[in-house]
UniProtKB/TrEMBL annotation:
Subcellular location, record wording: Nucleus
Listed PROSITE patterns: NUDIX
UniProt GO cellular component terms: cytosol; mRNA cleavage factor complex; signal recognition particle, endoplasmic reticulum targeting
Name under which the protein is recorded: Cleavage and polyadenylation specificity factor subunit 5
Amino acid sequence: MVLAELGRKITSALRSLGNATIINEDVLNSLLKEICTALIESDVNIRLVKQLRENVRAVIDFDEMAAGLNKRKIIQSAVFKELVRLIDPQVKAWQPTRGSSNVIMLVGLQGSGKTTTATKLAYFYQRKGWKTCMICADTFRAGAFDQLKQNATKARIPFYGSYTETDPVVIARDGVRKFEDESFEVSNAIEPDQVIYVMDASIGQACEAQASAFKSKVDVSSVIVTKLDGHAKGTPLMCRIGDLGGHTSISVFPIDRYPLKSYSFGTKDPNYERDRSVPARFQRLQEDFEKYGMRRSVEGVLLVHEHNLPHVLLLQLGTFFKLPGGELHPGEEELEGLKRLLSEMLGRTDGVPVGWIPEDCIGNWWRPNFEPPRYPYVPAHVTKPKEHTRLFLIQLPEKTFFAVPSNYKLVAAPLFELFDNARAYGPIISSLPQVLSR
């Protein structure tokens, strides 16, 4: 990716700072020159590059720096904050509302990738537990409905469109009426909750004028940039993404993370498996499946900060790692069941509630049979999966006490370690870095 190349150039510049024996004005000037050159080569507006340089220079004053201060870290921090400021509008990302209708309308020029993006967006929310559908309101481009139909069929997403109707408003209303009758989470097509502008990365610095033109006609509230893997010109789009007015945002983690040292830990009675043997477990699962249907499980992803890096809390039993959670009772609501399971596994023994706040569902895993493996999808040949597990991000309180069963260890594993250690952590835990980066 071209953006990855920009990242390598910036990393190389910071590495040269780390290798310098003496930190002075010459080293700072060389660092800023390398970073600014990399940004300009990636087609970032020169005004923004100049502003970044001036802001860093305003923070770093070697004459007024007290003796003993770590000059490298001060410079690195100043550069990092300015790079973040280029792409972070400091606005909370839009989140769909559970229990009510949510309509997302995509707008943009022809060829910008609206149809493909709509499919990816619908599939993204489908994996997070939403019931999604797509309506093709593009009546002008030849083959628009055929493309949407092909993409939606492949992703197994319901869709609606028309080969004969030429009015996009009529199609939108008819499609909404159709899916409302089937209890889909959509409402009146002419009152979208979110208008997303789909922008082609290849337009470069023309993004500002184009975005302003769309903003003057429709209430654009978010931006999706496509084709970033093939164009260096995608960088200025990232830098100007906040110019639409105060709604747009880039969300990395939708929860607050607190340092690991904010929490205290203790032990409580061991938590043993329900079944005494593997055959007994299979027999119980078979009986439960015949009586209640597919087994439902929920697990919580608890994130903390350690050494300025995100870590996930895992339960360790011997060489086996797992996320806290477990099996729901028949008919039990997911979020309430998750709170119950988290309290049973990590809650205090004095009855004081921890205050778990389940947030987004970030993963769905299915088990075709009563034994491993689990898949992030239902295999095509499986018509009746035996278990469905959903992963939820958990908002932890700023401070609390965890009581860990004495037969388990609670470990904080850095996210960067999980992906490269799938054999040790298993497929679900090792997939968390990729899931959380989306």
